[in-house]
Target: Alanine dehydrogenase
Amino acid sequence: MKIGCPKEIKPQEFRVGVTPNAALEAINRGHCVIIETGAGTGAGFEDADYVAAGATILETPAEIFAAADMIVKVKEPQAIERKMLRDGQILFTYLHLAPDPAQTKDLIASGATCIAYETVTDRAGGLPLLAPMSEVAGRLAPQMGAWTLQKANGGRGVLMGGVPGVRPANVAIIGGGVVGTAAARVAVGMGANVTVLDRSIARLSYLDDVFMGRLTTQYSDRGAMVDLLPRMDMVIGAVLVPGAAAPKLVSRDQLGLMQSGAVLVDVAIDQGGCFETSHATTHQDPIYEVDGVMHYCVANMPGAVARTSTIALGNATMPFMLSLADKGWKRACADDPHLLAGLNVHAGQITYKAVGEALGMDCITPEQAIQ
Ligand SMILES: NC(=O)C1=CN([C@@H]2O[C@H](COP(=O)(O)OP(=O)(O)OC[C@H]3O[C@@H](n4cnc5c(N)ncnc54)[C@H](O)[C@@H]3O)[C@@H](O)[C@H]2O)C=CC1
Ligand SMILES: CC(=O)C(=O)O
Ligand SMILES: [Mg+2]
Model:
């Protein structure tokens, strides 16, 4: 199979979908890998590294999209990329379709087979292709929140760890999954006073065990928000209902409960965001203020640390990419229900229930798609 990897074009996105190591593995199995020139530079991989692995460098995205049987990327295809997809082509990347009707319609119109990293599952009930980027975004969230808390950035001027005689920042993390746990680790390490909220008692028990008294757990409901918001310096949104639009857990009215200069970091923004007042921002212009509360809502946070993120993502995606290339998408998905769970759009139809529900559009089951 011909595997194509274009350069990412989302603003300040420096990751790349195929690493030289992944290219080498694919080429050793008899596949052909084509890479857009400069695609890996932002992550520290030069064209020469790909050539050494046996890949071919092409000059333009148009050549990559025209030649490849499978496009492997990082971020959801942008409008100009969606126009280059075609019937029968495989697209393997993050999609986040539930909050994105425009992208969904374009992918349906393309006729391509679109497999979303974020809904591929594993035997333990996890999301193995989302997890590595959630590890990164979770670690970045308190760091970016701490920066936003600084006066010059509109924050209330509170230091995460405080100093002797002055209390540390109060940080609430809503959602104690992969992002939430990584965020808790860093926020606790910075010396903040951390509370993690979740609807899963099993998850709260796990966190209670592993953090051994260094954070507080609280069941996530409306009452908990009303109780916590007036006291928090920072609230990190880290919830997920897989494939679906994020539930809105803090309303615009509730911003009035918060202290002026407090910070919301909405990591769940790629699924539409879990605060009513969130809208996606970029690394170049990451923060804005609503009713005195600062918002940080960058939808591709791991792009900030592109080298770490590219290697971590490549480690996780490679086995699935190889399986798709070796067997073709239909056989690979038929053999592996966890990969099949990644199928979001095929031949003009939505194949992921939560996406169809979120957008009010018809869908078929992924099992129907592989018949
Ligand atoms: N902005 C960015 O650059 C990035 C964003 N993300 C996003 O971060 C979000 C979280 O991802 P993960 O931690 O990997 O998911 P996860 O599935 O590991 O954890 C989500 C947690 O949210 C909890 N939850 C669901 N509904 C809840 C509610 N109403 N209240 C409290 N907790 C609730 C679940 O029980 C689960 O423990 C996702 O939307 C993901 O796409 C991930 C990586 C990068
Ligand atoms: C998960 C995701 O959206 C990202 O890494 O950008
Ligand atoms: Mg994202």
Observations:
- The mean pLDDT is 97.
- The two ends are 22 Å apart (CA to CA).
- The pocket of pyruvic acid (ligand 2) is lined by residues 94, 130, 133, 270, 300, 302 (CB under 6 Å).
- The chain is about 35% helix and 15% strand.
